[in-house]
Model the fold of this input.
Amino acid sequence: MSADVLDARSAALETTAWGERFHFFQPRNVVFWMFLWLCGTGVVKGWQMFSPLSGYFGRALLIASVVGVISAAVWGWWFRHVDRYERQPVALVITAFVWGATAATFAIAVPANTAVGSLYGKLFGQVWAQDWHAGLSAPFVEETAKGIGIVVLLALAPRLVRTPTDGLLLGAFIGLGFQTSEDLLYSVSGATQGFGAHQTDGLLGSIATRTYSDIISHPLFTALFCAGIIYLIGTPAQPRRIVRGLALVVIPVVVHGVWDSMIAIAGGSGAIVFVIMAGDVIFGLTALWIAFVWAHPREAHFVRDVLAPEVDTGVLTDAEVTAAAGWRQQRQYIKAGTDRADRKRRRHIVRAALDLLADLASGKGHDTDDVLDTRAEITRLRSVGAQAPS
Done:
């Protein structure tokens, strides 16, 4: 094994900080205390909003909370699944979620949106404000409130938040926290309509509306916005790309604004609302796909550098390392299997290669027990395929 290949592995692990741990308690970091203050303020303000409803509307509040927890768990599982390479520490992910659910929502967005709405009403009249307030306030206020979260995480974990993919995934969890709190607000608001005479109907209607609207909502907006901030700021793993950064910051604001204003834009026409909604969804998801396409080459480069020594020693092949570096390459590699058993074996080898990547990152490139066990598993999987009857 050449020294150059090992040096490239060490450099990749140093640059990406894959395998690093996150320590939340940082008493000497002023951002840590700012985080606690703003999140604490958010918790207090949220409590002040919901506690008066805990009596008569207690059942609606409980149901909305349970649905919110289930929805957050499902979306959170999916976001962790998308985190293909070395996953972010759970503590950092929770920190991102908490910022979105407390500080961004109740400490910043709710009072700011209220203030902007009041200003619009005084300047342009209540009718205009009712039509356009959401679309011309929330995108700017809420994306900024959530975007501050990635800057906070950069200050709390500068070695862990380095690539646009980190921005996409951590931004998704910040947005998920915001979405969870916002869904709770809207659900309880639906239950309280008509003085609570039809709590269940109002609650279920709000939950249904928020469920389908969550397909293109705050996790998507914030993922794009936070990836844009990473491009704008630049990190040791990602050189500054101003144009990409500005594009990814502006796009979610536009998509969010159109989504919140589509009834006003359509002039009340249901058909036009549907067209605008479909176009906004397609545009938002396309932007997210492009963001991952932009981020993929650097991530794949780091994966190849970390796993290249395993090719030299015969643990992995070039094709397997390439498959581990991208979803499309993985599908092509698995599809090239000779039969169903071979395709299944290839799928397991790619997963084991990603496990080896994580073990190497945790062990700083050294041959730890986990690394040796994963290598042995890859060898076993390959031998099973070789022994299979033709």
Observations:
- The chain has two domains: 22-300, 314-387.
- Residues 22-300 form one domain.
- The mean pLDDT is 87.
- The two ends are 34 Å apart (CA to CA).
